[in-house]
Amino acid sequence: MTTILSANTVSKRFGGRHGGGVLALSNVTLDVREGEFLCLLGASGCGKSTLLNMFAGFVAPTSGDVSLRGEGIRSIDPRCGMVFQSYALFPWKTVRENVAFGPKMKGLRRGERRDIAERFIELVGLSGFAEHYPVELSGGMQQRVTLARCLAADPQVLLMDEPFAALDAMTREVLQGELMRIQAHSGKTVVFVTHNIDEALVMADRIVVMSPRPGRIAAVIENDLPRPRDIEAQLLAAYGALKRRIWSLVAGDLQEHAA
Q: What domains appear along the chain, each with residue ranges and CATH number?
């Protein structure tokens, strides 16, 4: 498969000079395949969000390089769309206006912007809420708007930093299913940060397990569990075996780090 994003021997140190500060990532090399759903999995502080922010162009590596389609990432690139844990919507804009923001920045005409917004509002299951404001929506609905706004800008890659972490378990499960449906429909590449093993197992094609700080790649696991994956998939013996394998990696690294 074609590689769309790459990190090549990337390290990142925050603060300090001459060896001081905090080493968040150490010598990370990773290729992201075009069209795949890849999860960066690990405990808090393992550098997974730092790596995601490098792909987004928000953070530059201290050493090594990151690239998009073979070109070095030096700044924010519209080919990568970011979805954060917080909803980051414009509170003074309606759902339609929020979703149409990306097309507006591209200079598209009002009618075309409206058509695009309506299409993605429907795609995320919010038909009938186009004229509502964010404050009038639940957390899950606001995150749907955030996803629709990102998709309306037509990025090649969706970068998602624990987007469902603040939601209740039932809403989280529903949105996981929605995101998998949208990704299958659109063919977008998704890089998804999580510390939840079940979330990674349900959603990912590949799972990158990261060790505690300084973050390194402990393992890259191909997830061959059959699709569609839902709550019943978690009863499969293969699911349990894969979860135990990943947990042993995460728990082992945490115990070693604590020692």
A: 3-79+157-258 (3.40.50.300), 87-154 (no CATH)
